[in-house]
Amino acid sequence: MSTSDDDSDVLQLSAEAQRALKEFYEEQNEKLLSQCDDKDATDVKFDEDWQLSQFWYDEKTCERIVECAFKKVGSNGSIALISCPTLYKTLKKKSPTMLIKLFEFDKRFSVYGSDYVFYDYNEPMKFDEELLNSFDLVVVDPPFLSEECLTKSLQTTKSLTKQHVILCTGEIMEELATKLLNVHKCSFEPKHNNNLANQFACFTNFSSELD
User: Fold this and answer.
1) Using CA atoms, how far apart are residues 107 and 90, in angstroms rounded to an integer?
2) What is the pLDDT of residue 48?
């Protein structure tokens, strides 16, 4: 998942429209839950929700990031995905035995069963304590291009990872990302199915084929 500017130009829905939209998504989620289980949930197709600043990675981006992650931790490793749900399917199909947890605000992804963890970046430490420092690698893509969102998302990241991190975010966040996480910018550029105005970049705190 990617980001877009969180500013005053974003269209605001009326309270009534917001309630209707919320009810619609809840109804859709119930349908998904009734049709899926942990075994076949990876076949479910999710549309982007612009209200949640969702912009899905394209197939090549998913493959590149997943290949890097797999080489780093192996089939018996553990990976946390924070606000980047499009990586889940590719990663699960690449290594069904790998421990994967998707930290995501959008409850539609609860169809992934025990692999799903509800996550709100506004409450960066609200998750089970047993998950602290339990992942070999964390991939994070904060949903908004703001200092607050990046800072809180990386607070979660540092609390979950044992060591390794892949960060995808707007190139303009490089200085803050480097300050908070000691990452470096890679030559690889994440791409999305729908082109974004913001220039995107990938950062890691280790050497890899993404450099």
Assistant:
1) 19
2) 55
